[in-house]
Amino acid sequence: MDLKYIDRSPLIDSTEPESSDVADDHAIESGNIAASSPHRLRSRIEGNGLQEAQPNRFLRGEQWMMNYQEAAIYLEEGVNNEKFDTHPKSHKALPAYLIAHHPFFHVMDLFASLLLLSLAIIERPAVQSIHVPIIVHATVELLGIFILTLDLIFKARWQGIKTFFQHKRSLLKCILLLVMVCEAITVIVRQANHFRVTRALRPLFLLDTHYCRGIRRFCRQLLQSLPPILELLFLLLFVMLLFSILGFYLFSSNENCVYFLTLQKSFISLFVLLTTANYPDVMMPSYATSNFSAIFFIVYIAIELYFFMNLFLAVVYNTFTTLEKSKVKKLLIHKRNACEHAFRLLVSKKHPEAIALRHFVGLMHFYMPRAKKEDVYLIFKSLNTSATGCLSLEEFFNVYSLAGLNWKEAMMSDLWFHKLPSPFRKLMTGINWLVTLKWFEYFIYCVITGNFIVILYEAIDASIILSKEVENGTEHITSPIVVSWHSIMFTAIYILEALLKILGLGPKAYFTDGWNLFDLIVTLVSVAGLVENIYHDTFFYFIILRPFRLIRIFKARRRYRDVLGTLFILADRLWSLVVTLVLLFYFYGIIGMECFSHLELLNCCQNSTAIAPYYANSTGYYYLNNFDDIFKSGVTLFELLVVNNWFIIMEGYAIMATEYSRIYFMTFYLITMVVMTVVVAFILEAFMFKIEYRHQTNENSSIDYLIQPQSLSLSEVHMINNVKPHLWSGEFIRQQTPCSTDLSFVGKKKRGKIELSQQMYKDEIEEWLKEGRGETTSHNTELVQLSPPDIVLSTPSLSRISSVASGLSDDVPCIIDREDDVALINHSSEII
Q: In this structure, are residues 356 and 319 in contact, taking their beta carbons and an 8 Å threshold?
C-alpha cells in the first residue's frame, strides 16, 4: 500500500479550529520571537476581525507557530555548531536571520568570495592571454565587496551591534572590506594598480561562507593545535642555531667551503640541510678536508631530521587525536543543549514533560519543510521508544540521528523492474541474477587482469622497438601507440558489463554505488581514447587507465578494506585539507606576485657558480619558476612544496631581489611542513579510528549506514492519509500491538564521522554528559545570584504580551506562570 505524499500546503495552520482535545494545550514557555511580538499579534487579530473566543485560539496558534520556528532555529544552530549568543533575540531580528540563512543568500556569498579570488587572474600581473581594463576589475571587486557587505548588514541586524562586533571573525571581515573598498576606489581614481598585499587575505572571505564551514573548522582545529607545535618548532630552530654557530667555528676557515663563511650562511645551509635538498653537497667540501667532519653532519641530521621531525609528527598526531575527541564531545553537548532549548518551546501544560505529536509535526514543518507526512510520523514513532505517544527529553535528544533518514516500504521490491510486464520482468530478473553472481565478478576480474597483462606486454615490446630505432638512428621513429583488436575486445566487454549492471541493478542503484561509477568513468574514458585514436593519437593514453579497475580486487581482503575505509573516512577532511592548501598557495602566490613578478631570472646569477647553470637557457629551466601570474606562482610554490632543489629557487630570488626574500621561502616551507605533517596525522588518526571501531563494534555491522526499521498499523496509515497533521494524536502508538497487517518500513542514511565517533566513544559519553550537566548547573547557580536588574531583560516584552492577553480574555493561553521565571530562562539561554 502506497501512502499519499504531503502537498506543498503547510503542515499546520494556526487559524484552523482546534479540536476539543487540544483546546487547553497551552505553551509553557514563550521563545524570544513570540515574547517580542505582541503588537504583531494584536494587529493580526484586529485585521482578521475575529470575534469573542476566536482571539484566544488565534493567539495560541500564533504563539505555537513562532515557538515551532524558533525551536527549528535552535536545532539548526545545533547541527551547524553556531553559538546560541547569536540566536535571534526578537521577532524584529527574525527576517534578517532568515535572509542570511537562505540558500540563495549562501550561494551569493560563495559567489562573491570566489569572484574576489578570481580577480587575481586579471589583476596586475595578469595572465598573458587575458587583458582587462583597470576600471573593469576594480568595478567587479566593488560588486563582490557590496555582496559581502550585505551579509554583514543582515548579521548585524539579527545579532545586534554589540554581539556583532564581539564576534572576531565578523569584525575582521568588516576591517578587510573597508580597506579593500578604499584600495579599489584608489585604483579607479589613479587608473593604475599599486602594491596590494591585502589581496592575499581574500581567502578569508571564502572561509567565512556557509559552504566552507568544514574547512573553517579544520583551520580552527589547526590553529588550536599550534601551541605545542610552535613549542617544538622553536626547540628545533634553537638546536639548528646552536649547530649553525658550531659549524661556523668549525668550517668557516675552509676556503673551499662556501656554506659556512658567515653565521647567516651557516644557518641557511643547515636549514636547507634539514630538508635534505642540499645533502651531501653541503658536507663534501668539509669532508674532503677532514673525514671527521662527517660526524658533525651525521649528528645534526640524526637529531634534527630523525628525532625532532618524528617527534614533531608524534606531537601533531597526539594533539589532533585529543582535539578530535574534544570536538566530538563539544558538538555532542552543543547538540543536546540545542535540543533542550527546542524542547522547552515545544512542551505544553497538557504535556509538561514531553512533546506531543502535533507539536513535533509543527517543529518538522520548519526544520524539514520538504519532508513527507509519513516520514515525519515515522521519525516521531522511531524516537518514541517508550511508546507513550509523547517524546521525553531523552528521546528527543536522538532527533539529529533520525531526522535525516530516507524511508521506504520494506515489502516493496528494491528491483526497479518489478512493475514491468511479465516477459520483460523475467528477462531483467535473469540479468539481475547474472550481475549479482560472484562468478560474474570473478570473470570481470580475470578480464581486467588479462587486459593489464596485454597492455604491459605491449608497452615492453614497444619500448624495445623504440630503443632499437633510436640506437640505429632511424629518422622516423615508430609510434608506440596502436589500436589492436584486443583493445577493442576488452573495451567492448567493459561496455557490455556496464549495460548489464545498469539493466540488472537499475539506474539508481548503479549510479549511487561508488565502485560502479569508478568503473563507468574508466570505461567511458577508454572508449573516448579508442575512438580518438582511430583518427589521431592524442588521447590513446586514456586506454591504459582501464587496469586501474584492478583496485576493486583489493577490497576482497580485510587489510585492504581498512585502507579503503580509511580513504572514505578521510574523503571530507582531505577535501578540507586540499582547499586549505589551495588557499595557502593563493596567499603566498599573491605575495610572491607583488614582490617578485618584475624579476627576470633567465641567465641570472652569473656570479654564483653553484646555481648559475640552473638558470641558463641552454642547461637549465629554473627561470620558468617565476611569479608572473597566479597560475605560474602556484606551480612554483608546488615545486617548493616538493622540496627537491627548492633552495635553488630561493637563492635565485635572494640574488636578484634581496637576501631578506629568503624569509618568504623559509616561512612557506615551515608552514607547509606543519600542514603536510597534519596530513600524515590525519591518515594515522583515520586508520586507527577504523581499526578501533572494528574492534569495539561488530565486524559484520554496517559502518557506512544507519538503518532503522519501523512499522505502521492500518489505523496509523488512515490517520496519516486522512487527518490533518496538526490534529494527529499519539494514541495509536500507545495502543498499537504487532499485527500481520502492519506495514513495514526501513529508514536509511549514511553515517558521518561524528556519528561513528559517538558510537566508538559510547563508554565515555555518559561521563561527558555528566560534565555538561555540571556546567549547566553552575550556570543556573550563577543566574540565581544575579541582581534584579540583571534578570529582567525580557520583562517589558512579557508585560506587553500579558496586557494584550488580559485585554482579550482570561482564557488566552498562559505563556508561563511567573514572569521572573521566563526572564530567568531567557537570560539563561543567552548565557549558554
A: no
- Inter-residue long-range contacts of 490-498, CB under 8 Å, 24+ positions, other chains counted: 490/447, 490/450, 490/451, 490/454, 490/546, 491/523, 491/526, 491/527, 491/530, 491/543, 491/546, 493/447, 494/447, 494/519, 494/522, 494/523, 494/526, 494/546, 495/523, 495/527, 497/444, 497/523, 498/523
CB-based contact 553:444 (threshold 8 Å)? no
Using the 8-state DSSP alphabet, how is residue 348 labeled? B
Q: What sign results for the dihedral spanned by CA atoms 182, 188, 189, 193?
A: positive
Is 635 in contact with 133 (CB distance < 8 Å)? no
Coil, helix or strand for 637? Answer: helix
Write out pLDDT tens, residues 556-591: 566 666 666 666 666 667 788 889 999 999 999 999
Give Cα 255 distance to the centre of its chain.
Answer: 56
Q: Would the pLDDT of 629 be above 80?
A: yes
Instruction: Give the ranges where 751-818 is alpha helix by DSSP (H).
Output: 753-760, 762-784, 795-808
| Range list of H helices, 49-102 | 54-79, 94-100
779-811 pLDDT, tens digit each: 444 433 333 333 233 333 333 333 333 333 333
The DSSP output letter for 355 is E
Q: Which helix (H) or strand (E) holds 229?
A: helix 226-251
Of 312, 274, 314, 280, which is closest to residue 669 (Cα–Cα)? Answer: 274
Contacts of 830 (CB under 8 A, 6+ apart): 84, 85, 87, 89, 793
pTM for the model: 0.77
Cα 715 from Cα 742, distance rounded (Å): 9
